[in-house]
Amino acid sequence: MVGAVQQARAVTFDGSYDGFLCVIFAHYYDGVQPMAIQTQSQLTLFADDALHIETCAEKAARVARGLRNKISEDAAGNVYYAFHSGDEGRFAPLFEYVKLGFKLGHMIDSHLHEDCVRAVHKLARHVGREAHLLYGFCRFAETTNGVFYCVVTPKNDVLHFLANHFSQRFMNQQWIIHDKHRNMAAVYDGREYIITGVPHNTAVEYAEGEDEIQELWVTFFTTLAIEARKNPKLQRQLLPLYFRKNMTEFTKI
To answer: Fewer CB atoms near the end CB (10 Å): N or C, the chain?
Structure first.
């Protein structure tokens, strides 16, 4: 049952996807009218009057079902991908997109004249593209305890996408994907993965012989290249420069 409409005010949440879904729940069931939506770590504007929305798994699940059933699976996917964008202004267009989606149903994504639809589509595409590129650009190295370790510094929060991909690709291998940009890591124990915080100055010891293996990989990479067919402009389009600082074939050259 929809509650009485409240005065517009800034709202905060814990920064999780479930937390954002609970903001949507609070709008429809508690009458909350967000004037601005921020995570607790972002809170700057309207700090004295901000309303904090607690995360509740049950409420989040109800909203998630509503996105899929009352709008569409595609729209639910757009919301999930766009939420993980690195754009700090993403919450406002996401909120408007969801509201419009509950009005229009499955036709929402054809309303490209709406600013929120175009914005969410753009954010979702950017996240999806970066995750897809990193499926091929992640470089793992063996550590002294046999766990394979990979460093990434993505523009978007794509750890969940990477973890889901590599938990299916390397099902029997323990690994860690470390997002140094956010001090977070996906840790897989050979059965399931978790996303956890990582101390800023975490040290990693690599297995004996790992350096030689990386040198062999660089040799393969440089030998395979055909000098007459080098096309730096095309290479930058297919392999953006900001990925290269974590790729063996570029960092070892």
So the answer is: N
